C-alpha cells in the first residue's frame, strides 16, 4: 500500500468548541488528524484580535504545546486572516487564548484541513475489495511504489493513470473496541504500572501512620512528665 499526499485535494474537519471564558476556548476533533492547515475565523466583522494558539496531538495529553502567536481579523468585505500552516501535524485539540481584547459573544470558528490520501493497493481476486483501517494493533504494511508497481507496468501518466476503485457503503468490522484494543504485553505493562502506584500509595499511607503514632507517643511522654 502506498500513501501519497495530494497538494490540491483537501478535506475540511470542523472542531467542536468548549468555551472556558470570554478570552479562552478549547476545540476538539473526534480523533487525531494529520492537518495541513488550521483556519481560525472570527464571527464578528471589523474585528482584529491577537491570540495565542496551542495544541494537543491526543486529547488525553496533559501538556499543551505552543503552535503560534498571531493576529486574526475579519472584515466586512469578507477579508479574513490566513490559515495557519501545520505540515501534516497530528492534532486532536486546540486551545485559543485572546492576548488582549475579546472575540465578543461567539468564539472563533476553527476548521482543520487535511490533505487527501490516495491508497494504492494490489487487487487480488474479484471485486468488491475491503479496505480495513483503524486497528490499534495493526502494523504498517506500506511499501515503496516501485516494489508494488514496476516501472514497466505503469501507465504513461504514472500513478494517476492506474484504475480507480470507488467507495461503496462503509461497514463496521471491529467497532470502537478494536480501535482502542491493546496487545497483551501493553495490557500487562499498564497493570504493572497501576500495581506499582498502588504499592507506593500504600507505603506512603503506612509511613504516615507510623509518624503519627510516634508523634502521639512523644506527646504522651511529655504530658506524663
From TrEMBL:
Keywords attached to this Swiss-Prot or TrEMBL record, sorted alphabetically, are: Membrane, Transmembrane, Transmembrane helix
Task: Tell me which Pfam families the record gives.
Answer: DUF3999
Q: Where are the transmembrane segments?
A: 194-215
Asked if Membrane is a keyword of the record, the answer is yes
**Could you identify this protein by its name?**
DUF3999 domain-containing protein
